[in-house]
Queue: 2 jobs
Job 1
Amino acid sequence: MSTLFEKIIAGELPATVVHRDARVTAFLDIRPAAPVHILIVPNKVIPTADDLTDEDESLVGHMMLVARDLARQHGIAKSGYRLIVNCNPDSGQEVYHLHLHLLGGRPLGPLLQRTSA
Ligand code: AMP
């Protein structure tokens, strides 16, 4: 069964795609947590960051550079942004197809609430 994001990459599920190339697809998050909230997703399925292999090194670098370019295009490079990758249940990962969140367009506040470690 294909993941939700595979369907978006294949064009079988609607999404606002803001970047597409041979290795990654980027589209707007359906429930944005900030004025700019973009997901950068590898075209091949990698369920979590824990499933990355050494062969994925350049893919991960490419995801970061696509995020940099999208931040510039959306006018948040200088004001600032946050890149997040959730991995497995404690992170709250909902979709098991690796994705990089690009968030910005307002002050984002502290990274995490400081509760007992
Ligand atoms: P995560 O919790 O890191 O797995 O993030 C999954 C993200 O996917 C959430 O921010 C969701 O709002 C987003 N999402 C879920 N379904 C869709 C969809 N059909 N199109 C765009 N974003 C989605």
Job 2
Amino acid sequence: MPTSPRGRATAAGGERFAVLDPATGEAFDEAPARRPEELDTVVERAHEAWRGWRSDSLARSKALLTAADAVEAAGADLAPLLTREQGKPLAESYAEVARTAARLRYFAELVPRPRPRKIMDGRPVRSEVRWRPLGPTAAIVPWNFPLQLASAKFAPALAAGNTMVLKPSPFTPLATRLLGSVVAGALPEDVLTVVTGHEPLGARLASHPGIRHVTFTGSVATGRAVAEGAAASLARVTLELGGNDAAVLLDDVDVERIAERLFWAAFRNCGQVCVAVKRVYAPARLYSRVVEALAQHARAVVVGAGLDPGSQLGPVNNAAQLARVERCVDQAVSAGARAVTGGHRLDRPGYFFAPTILADVPPAGTVVTEEQFGPVLPVLPYGSLDEAVEAANGTGFGLGGSVWGTDLDRAEAVADRLECGTAWINHHAELSLAQPFAGIKDSGVGVAGGPWGLYGNLRPFVVHRPGAA
Ligand code: NAD
């Protein structure tokens, strides 16, 4: 029978499901298929483990630092496995492992914070705010950055003194399972449990009455379902959802200088990044130069299996996502858009799509109004800056955005008008572990990252007594 990270039996009956390699479209391994009913025991154990875990902050900090070292030491096992099931080039998988370890260290150091705080309001009372963990937390994550997003959930939650049940996407269960085993090896039993399986496993976890916080990263539609599920027990909900980030190029932009950076801000991880550039707005005067400069990079990029040395862009992660990307492009082209490069699947096994730059795109097409989440970038011309800002803000999303130009003050003034959680100037999607990350509108609820991310896993507890402050 398969075993869990800490050696405990997993799926009764040993049911398993196939995991596919997106570079071939073929199964290469299996993962345990946990049944939703099994969550009762898993959550109960997470609750029992919480009693000890929440009480010793020094031990928590030490354990998270040990876990970080263990993750780093397991890099040579984690990274190739991640590439195999996710598709990304191996170097990017190693970077994901490194980021996971760095995040554990970052939050290990935040453990002693926040300190209790006295409230002074002029009255003769002593009122003190202390911070308490929430309890067993459920984390549900997608397939684009399985390790990085898992650690974005468990590092702050565990640092804050919560325990966690983590469910990865069934497209990418293996590296997360291994990561869970490596991290859990540094923690008391049942502090972190990874459960793998197909729906309704996630739905059951999100609505489980023993869960006090549901932290979810994924699509808007699933985020809504998760919030509805969590409403049954009124658990706290944190949602990091989709994005449709615009890059607005100003008329003083040095097109050739920024083209490569802009290209990779859209195409890294095959465009499967929540904060990828998903639309480019270029001044009409520079439009054809921008399109051509981006197309040159798209033509030159080496597409191949993530494990092949030299591959810069891997396959799309799964067949459904590939079909979605193809649909978005076909719809745009039939409405009059021009595929300057790409525009089609690659004629080879696996889920490969040619890097695609779309010009003359009708602004109402789904490739503009929704997130394509693939190696496809629409470029749209604009007349006035007001028009560009209005278009950039004109979708239901509000995750990130960027402004590109030579005069940085002017660029910053435009960035300030973007309706999103993070606005970058002359780059995109660079995130620091220490900064808050939060989407607005359909892009999310709650905050991750930095001390704000830690507070998202805590509740204030006030002790109020008469006497001098
Ligand atoms: P998804 O919403 O389909 O799945 C996300 C997770 O939810 C998976 O683990 C899935 O198995 C699970 N799930 C599916 N149905 C569920 C249900 N009814 N109840 C509970 N859980 C359920 O998303 P995806 O296709 O895996 O990932 C791509 C999406 O994630 C994109 O929209 C992308 O923008 C978004 N994303 C957002 C961020 C962010 O930080 N804002 C980061 C990465 C990805």
